[in-house]
Structures are given as structure tokens and as C-alpha cells.
Design a protein that fits this description.
alpha+beta; Peptidoglycan synthesis regulatory factor (PBP3), Domain 2; Beta-lactamase; 2 domains; five-stranded antiparallel β-sheet; 8 helices; 18 strands; elongated
């Protein structure tokens, strides 16, 4: 028999799934705003539409560099050689000189702060032997992350018809960068860097507005328009925004601030259950316990619109009673969350403990009691 047990009391809950964007219009051609802690999508527009990543490509270049640093195969004071190809790169530059060797830390700042296309080639050639080989490594890493619509053809974002991504894919990359490398992420918040006596400022407009921004990268090509991958922290909340397709840098800055303000104002993040905490109990048939605790295998931190708290329902659904024996960790039920105007969210609930099977005589007695008195009272 299908059982539906209401969970009370319950405080606000969305889940690790898309949230309805609500009535919000933006001039961005593509946009996605997510809650970093839960992964919930707060706002989305053409999230999976192919787009040129321009210099936001450099986030993956830096990710692979951070990866080498974290595993110990490269150090911040190690140096990489500058080839003629790197020196000849056009667009934004760090101004490295052919034949020189540049420290890894300077290259990080040259890419993150100065958006140096020349520095990305130095890194690509230093880590993979050639930029083509490094671009294949970038694409492989994207596939590993689930960035299924992303293909990299170079390390800088230089225009190439086959160099494509989506704002949804870039948001995945930004979230992985923040979560995987907290020890190196601070470079994205630096506002200026001087190399070869040339001082340049970070192009990220949000770093100068006092909004709580701490990264990441702007981008521009004629095909892509003006784009931005940004992260903003307020208190214990972090929102990630990726936008592309603006007609100018001022519009990009203004719209980015407006979307982030809306996200912080209209949505809340709530911690609901911890891994292993009993969410509910399911009735057991012919077991040495009448009920089995139902638990989650990981914490739930959730995001939802503030206006939806009162109309949300949370239920546990399972086929019961559940026959014994039951092994701890076995999937028993579903946690179902329903919020108006949003897709229902389901998470598996697992048996929190073993429940043994009754002996033959115990089964007879239990069956007789069930016929006479009915099922045991729900806890």
C-alpha cells in the first residue's frame, strides 16, 4: 500500500534542482543565477543555448593550473618559458617577452587580473606541450564536470567557430573552482597587477562596487558580446552569476548588479536535514522492530523563494509496510517536496538501521495480532 506521511514541522525547502525564475526580465542574451551552496537555479534565460565564452574560457585554464598546484606537480615560484607564439598573441596582454621565463604566480595574476591572452599560451604550452593539446585537456575536464555542451579550442577564448559553451556549463565550472580550490581562489578578487612596469586593473566591474563580489572573469568578443562570470558573497550566502550577450560594458555591469540584488532579496537558503538524521519512520512487516528510521545520505541545504514558504508541502512516500529483513542503507522511500509553480523535487530516503526478520513463531503471532488489532500506530 502506498503510504504518504506528512513531515511536521518543516521549515522552507527547495532542493538541488532548478527553481522557477519568477517574473524577472533581463537584457542579457543568456543568463543563469545559482545558489552556490545548493546548486539551485534562481534565474535562467537561454541557459543551454550555445554561446562563445570569450575570456571566460580562462576560468578553465586557471582551473587546470590550480589543479597542478594542488597536486604538487607545480609550485607558485616555478617558471614557464615564453614562446614566440605566446609573445605574438593579440588582444588583452600581460606583455611577456619571448625567451623569458615567468613565475606561475605571475602567470595566474596575468590571466586573472590582466586577462592576458599571451599568458594563457605560456601556461598551455608549459603544462601540455602545445595549446592544442591543452585545449583537448580543457574539453576533457569539461566532460568530467558534466559540461556536455562545451568544447574548447584554445586557452584564451580567442574567436573560433568550434569554441563554444553555455552559461549553464560555465556556472558548473565556476562552482567547481570555488569549491575545489579555496586556497587559490583569492587571486580572482585582486583588482590590479603590475608586470614589466605596466600596471593593469581587473576588468570585473563588480569588484569595485562594494557588493561582496570576489571574482571571477569578464569576456568580450564581437560574436559573444559582453559577458561576465561573477561570484558575490553576503554573510553565509554565495550567488554565482554567468551572463553573456550584452551590447556594452555599462549595461553588463548594471544588469549584473540588478540580477544579484534580486537573487539575494527574493530567495533564501535553508539548511533542512543533516546526513544520517531521521526524517521519518516507515512501518515494517514481520520484523523485529515495527518501524525503520528513514535517513538521507547527504545534507540538504535548500533554496526557495521567500514568498513560497507557506504553500510548500513536504511528504514521505513509500510502499508499505516494508517487509523484513531490511539492510541499513537500502532505499525505502522518497522525500517529495512540492512548491507552487515549481517542478516537484524528490530525494531517496534510506533505511537508517538493520531490521531483522521475525522467527516463524513470531511471524505467526504478529500476523494474528494484525488480523485482530490492525497495523501498529504510526510513530
Amino acid at each position: 500500500m502506498k503510504r504518504r506521511l506528512p513531515i511536521l514541522p518543516v521549515v522552507a525547502l527547495m532542493a538541488l534542482a532548478p527553481v522557477a525564475a519568477g517574473a524577472f526580465e533581463t537584457a542579457a542574451r543568456e543568463a543563469v543565477l545559482i545558489d552556490e551552496s545548493t546548486g539551485a537555479t534562481i534565474l535562467g534565460k537561454n541557459v543551454q543555448a550555445p554561446t562563445a565564452p570569450s575570456s571566460m574560457t580562462k576560468i578553465m585554464t586557471i582551473y587546470l593550473l590550480f589543479e597542478r598546484l594542488a597536486e604538487g606537480s607545480l609550485g607558485l615560484t616555478d617558471t614557464l618559458p615564453v614562446s614566440e607564439k605566446a609573445w605574438r598573441m593579440g588582444g588583452s596582454k600581460m606583455f611577456v617577452e619571448v625567451g623569458d621565463r615567468v613565475t606561475v604566480e605571475d602567470l595566474i595574476r596575468g590571466i586573472v587580473v590582466q586577462s592576458g591572452n599571451d599568458a594563457t599560451v605560456v601556461v598551455a604550452e608549459g603544462l601540455a606541450g602545445s595549446e592544442d593539446a591543452f585545449a583537448r585537456e580543457m574539453t576533457d575536464k569539461a566532460r568530467e564536470f558534466g559540461m556536455a555542451s562545451t568544447t574548447f579550442r584554445n586557452a584564451s577564448g580567442w574567436p573560433d567557430p568550434e569554441h563554444v559553451t553555455t552559461v549553464g556549463d560555465l556556472a558548473i565550472l565556476v562552482r567547481r573552482t570555488i569549491q575545489d580550490f579555496p586556497q587559490y581562489y583569492h587571486y580572482y578578487s585582486e583588482t590590479d597587477f603590475t608586470f614589466s612596469d605596466i600596471q593593469q586593473s581587473n576588468r570585473n566591474p563588480l569588484l569595485y562596487t562594494g557588493t561582496g563580489a570576489d571574482g571571477l572573469k569578464t569576456g568580450y568578443t564581437e560574436a559573444a558580446g559582453y559577458g561576465l562570470a561573477a561570484s558575490v558573497v553576503r554573510g553565509d550566502r554565495r550567488l554565482i552569476l554567468v551572463v553573456n550577450g550584452f551590447g556594452g560594458s555599462r549595461e553588463r555591469a548594471d544588469e549584473a548588479r540588478r540580477m544579484l540584488e534580486w537573487g539575494f532579496r527574493e530567495f533564501d537558503a535553508v539548511e533542512l536535514f543533516e546526513a544520517g538524521e531521521t526524517v521519518a519512520e516507515a512501518e515494517v512487516w514481520l520484523g523485529d522492530d515495527d518501524f525503520v528510521p528513514l535517513v538521507l545520505d547527504e545534507d540538504i541545504a535548500v533554496t526557495l523563494p521567500r514568498a513560497s514558504r507557506r504553500d510548500m508541502t513536504v511528504k514521505v512516500v513509500y510502499d508499505g509496510p516494508v517487509p523484513a529483513p531490511i539492510r541499513a542503507g537500502a532505499p525505502i522511500a522518497d522525500l517529495v517536496i512540492e512548491i507552487p509553480d515549481m517542478a516537484p523535487v524528490e530525494r531517496a530516503l534510506l533505511a537508517g538501521s538493520d531490521v531483522g526478520e521475525l522467527s516463524f513463531l513470531g511471524k505467526l503471532g504478529s500476523a494474528a495480532a494484525y488480523l485482530v488489532f490492525g497495523p501498529p500506530a504510526e510513530p
